[in-house]
Amino acid sequence: MKVGFGWDIHRLVPGRPLLLAGVRIPHDRGEDGWSDGDVLCHALIDALLGAASLGDIGAHFPPGDPRYKDIDSRRLLRMAMEDLGRAGARVVNADCTVVLEAPRIRPYVGAIRAALAEDLGIPLDAVSVKGKTKEGLDAVGEGRAVEASAVVLVEDAE
Ligand code: MG
Q1: What is the model's pLDDT at position 127?
Q2: Which pLDDT score, from 0 to 100, does residue 132 have?
Q3: What's the CA-to-centroid distance between 7 and ligand 1, angstroms?
Q4: How far is the CA of 158 from the centre of ligand 1 (A)?
Q5: How many domains does the chain have?
Q6: Is 45 a residue whose pLDDT tops 90?
Q7: From CA 31, how far away is CA 9, in angstroms rounded?
Q8: pLDDT tens readout for residues 69-126
Q9: Are strands 30-31 and 2-13 parallel, antiparallel or unpaired?
Q10: Which residues are paired to 129 by β-bridges?
Q11: Is the pLDDT of residue 158 over 90?
Q12: How many Å lie between the centroid of ligand 1 and the Cα of residue 139?
C-alpha cells in the first residue's frame, strides 16, 4: 500500500462557477484557473499521482495547453485514475478537506462524495470530504481563495 497527498489553492473571482468535484456551489464568485479551476479535483489528482510517484498535475495537464482550457476537472481526475491503473494500482480510500470561508459546504458534501466515489471507483463510505474555514485569516479567510487538500491510500490492483 502507498499513501499520496495533494494540495491546491485557487483565487475566487466573479463570473466563474464555484465547483467542488464538479458540484456547483451557489456563490457570487468561483475558482479562477486555466481549467474549470475545481480545486478539490486538483488536490485529489496530485494525491493520486503522488501515491504512484507519477509526478504532478502541472506536468500531466499543463496550464496553457489548449486541450485543457476550461476543461471539466472531473475529466482530468478520471485521466489520472487511468494513469494510476496503468501503474498497477487502485484506490482504497480518500480523505479530503476543503477550506472555504463561505458558503458552508455541508449541504453539498453528499453530492461531492458521490461524484468522487464514482470517479475513484470506490464505495461512498471510502470517500470523506470535510469543510473548514480559515477563521477570517489570510486570503482564504477573506474569501479571496479556496484551498483543498487530499490524502489517498492506494494498493496493488492484483
Ligand atoms: Mg489547481
Answers
A1: 98
A2: 98
A3: 9
A4: 32
A5: 1
A6: yes
A7: 9
A8: 999 999 999 999 999 999 999 999 999 999 999 999 999 999 999 999 999 999 999 9
A9: antiparallel
A10: 96
A11: no
A12: 16
Task: State the pLDDT at residue 46.
Answer: 98
Q: How far is the CA of 71 from the centre of ligand 1 (A)?
A: 12
CATH number of the domain at 124, please. 3.30.1330.50
For cell 470523506, name the residue: 128
Taking CA atoms, 6 is separated from 26, 29, 66, 75, 158, in Å, by: 25, 24, 24, 17, 25
Rounded distance from Cα 51 to ligand 1 centre (Å):
18
**Dist. CA 89 → ligand 1 center (Å):** 24
Cα of 33 vs centre of ligand 1, distance in Å, is: 7
Q: Is the pTM of this model over 0.85?
A: yes
Distance from residue 9's CA to the centre of ligand 1 (Å): 6
Q: HSE (CB half, 13 Å, CA atoms) of 132?
A: 12
User: Tell me: the pLDDT tens digits for 50-75?
Assistant: 999 999 999 999 999 999 999 999 99
In terms of residue numbers, what domain contains 126?
Answer: 2-156
Mean of the pLDDT values across residues 25-40?
98
Give the distance (Å) from ligand 1 centre to CA of residue 147: 9
Q: What is d(CA 150, CA 4) in angstroms, rounded to the nearest whole number?
A: 8
